[in-house]
Write a structure and sequence with these properties.
Blueprint (H helix, E strand, L loop, with lengths): L2 E7 L19 E2 L2 E2 H11 L4 E6 L7 H4 L8 E6 L5 H10 L7 E6 L2 E3 L3 H10 L4 E7 L8 E4 L5 E5 L9 E10 H4 L10 H11 L4 E5 L4 E3 L3 H13 L14 E3 L4 E2 L4 E3 L2 E3 L4 E2 L4 E3 L2 E2 L4 E2 L4 E3 L2 E2 L4 E2 L4 E3 L2 E2 L2
Parallel strand pairs: 1-4, 1-6, 4-5, 8-12, 14-17, 15-18, 16-19, 17-20, 18-21, 19-22, 20-23, 21-24, 22-25, 23-26
Antiparallel strand pairs: 2-3, 6-11, 7-13, 8-11, 9-10
Keywords: Nucleotidyltransferase, Transferase
Family: Belongs to the transferase hexapeptide repeat family.
GO molecular function, one term: nucleotidyltransferase activity
Length: about 325
């Protein structure tokens, strides 16, 4: 049975402003590569042959970097939405480019997860499901759509954000659709899979299953979460085959210049052509290409924009400067 994938990368990333003024959220650097690269590698590692990137905001920035996918071991195609069509509309639009396949893995463009995608695919086939949702357990489900499961792992109900969630299982942003189910989504219309497609399928007794996996899961929708995701990948809290090889708990570009007495730790990333002057402490932070950091600075859990200049002696705590 052949499997293709669609990656939803059309969103603007308003919660990530000002980081997304010039760069769409999926192209922001996380552990030294654009975030989307981690998801493309995850698809390739699970044996998926092709992936369609469903783009909209700043769509022109994706193809020059990812090309036809050859260097990632997967065929990459690009679907552009002229105006944002929502999750369902975006999936339907992107599906027009798919080669013949039996099932389609849909990735949300803003989730970093350690979940077992090959295991989810196997579960989907074993249960002959129409749709299989990847679910994870959270302490507080109020910020997310929550899901009620029956004992056989079929989905009983799909509930949008609510004040008193009746379940702590949430939709974790990776779905497997049988190919023909996607064709039922209206073409060229704004459709939400969470609010329309899933509830409609449940109402018509479609076989919607939940695959529960409680490994690492993070929504990278805020600057603080983006910094955490990057540091967790560098320190090995979560593994991704897209993370560049590095020694220790930092990733420093060979073209960066680091002054004497500097301590760079806790998953920090120093990108290309960065200059860090002497006696700086950089912890859990991302320093963008070409940035210059004056001496005796302390930068903790922060992002410094490419090309930004930080004056000597500055202390930067959980901040996002130069965007």
């Amino acid at each position: 049975m052949s499997t293709s994938a669609i990656l939803l990368v059309g969103g603007m990333g308003t919660r990530l402003l000002p980081l997304t003024l010039k760069t769409p959220k999926p192209m922001l650097q996380v552990a030294g590569v654009p975030f989307t690269e981690h998801q493309i590698r995850k698809a390739a590692d699970a044996g998926i042959a092709e992936i369609v990137l469903a783009t909209s905001y700043k769509s022109e920035l994706f193809e020059p970097y990812f090309g036809n996918g050859e260097r990632f071991g997967i065929k990459i195609k690009y679907a552009v939405e002229k105006s944002a069509l929502g999750t369902g509309g975006g999936i339907r639009n992107a599906a027009n480019l798919l080669a013949d396949c039996d099932q389609v893995v849909i990735f949300n463009g803003d989730v970093l997860s350690g979940h077992n995608l090959a295991g989810q695919l196997e579960f989907h086939k074993k249960n002959q499901a129409d749709i299989t949702l990847y679910l994870t357990q959270v302490e507080d489900a109020r910020a997310y759509g929550c899901v009620e499961l029956l004992e056989n792992k079929q989905v009983k109900s799909f509930l949008e954000k609510m004040e008193n969630p009746i379940s702590n299982l949430i939709n974790a942003g990776c779905y497997i659709f049988n190919r023909q189910i996607i064709d039922q989504i209206p073409q060229d219309k704004v459709v939400s899979v969470e609010r329309e497609t899933f509830p409609n399928l449940l109402a018509t007794n479609a076989k919607v299953f939940g695959y529960l996996d409680n490994s690492y899961w993070l929504d990278i929708g805020t600057p603080a979460a983006l910094v955490k995701a990057s540091a967790d990948l560098i320190t090995g809290v979560i593994h991704s085959s897209a993370t560049p090889n590095h020694a220790g708990d930092n990733l420093i570009s060979p073209s960066a210049k680091i002054g004497s007495g500097c301590v760079i730790s806790n998953g920090s990333v120093i990108e290309t052509e960065v200059v860090v002057e002497s006696n700086c402490q950089i912890s859990g932070s991302i320093i963008g290409s070409g940035a210059k950091i004056g001496s005796n600075c302390k930068i903790i859990d922060s992002i410094i924009a490419p090309g930004a200049q930080i004056q000597a002696g500055m202390v930067v705590l959980t901040n996002y400067l130069g965007f």
